[in-house]
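Table S2 (text version). Query chain:
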Amino acid sequence: MIRVGESHRSQGLDGLKKVEVKLIMNQDQLREEIVRLKQKKGAIIFAHNYQSDEIQDIADIVGDSLELSRLAAQVEASLIVFAGVYFMAETAKILAPDKKVIVPEPQAGCPLAEMATRAELQALKKKFPGRKVVSYVNTTAEVKAETDICCTSANAVQLVSSLPDEEIIFVPDRNLASYVRQKTGKRVIAWDGYCPVHEEIRAEHLLEARAVHPEAEIWAHPECRAEVLEKADRVLSTGQMIKEARITRASEIIIATETGLLHRLSRENPDKKFYPARAEASCLEMKKNSLEKIYRALLEEKPEVVVDEETATRARAAIERMVQFVS
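Corresponding structure-token output:
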């Protein structure tokens, strides 16, 4: 079991070491075994948009973190394999407490989410009493438990605009906080966190990409730096990019986000061309998952994600307020 507040990475890794599974299968055989185990156990595989191509292709559902977490509560399967980073599996478990949620790689963490801790947020709340805390869904369960309402990159601006408060605390992404501040005009006390992948995408990368593809539109994720968002034609979350790609008249698009998204965009829109704003924009944590680890997780049904009841109850309230807003 992996519990919030414990060193879940090392604990999960030790758990995997207890039973060594020697794989002598090729990739085709491995995929067949995953499908066989999944059907035998009535399991379902979730994969985030940033997962590797082969994991996206074998997953039952591919989506963003909130979409997958919400679906966790709706699917009939009682066993969920969540290929993403750890906070996403936590969120799924919080919204689907009756389901068994396992992760292929417990050491796949989100650097952005890990930049904010419960103790630090509690201290900030004492410094600014009475301010509502809006936490990006890219946070740990413990941070969500200290939050008034969560948000996504897609609804952050609309959600903050809807609040009566003129000043809020926004955790943990400073770039998304800056975008919210610009669009809403509200006073935002921003946590000094960032996604390393999006932080490394610079305006110069957009200019270089457009020089090669002069007819292409530029779409940027709001986790990017302000200089990138200023030069983008559109600022969109990954979910919004997926939807807009289906209806846009643009035949070429430069994408300023993690490169894993391009596989799904290209697969679902074969008549359009998608280019990375920065070819090196790859999340190493996301890519720690593999077909071999998915097979092992299905075989052993572990490591399992467990969130203590008090943390889960408080975090669920913040998430459900966001879900009600989304609906």
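Notes on Table S2: The CA atoms of residues 87 and 140 lie 5 Å apart. The chain is about 45% helix and 15% strand.
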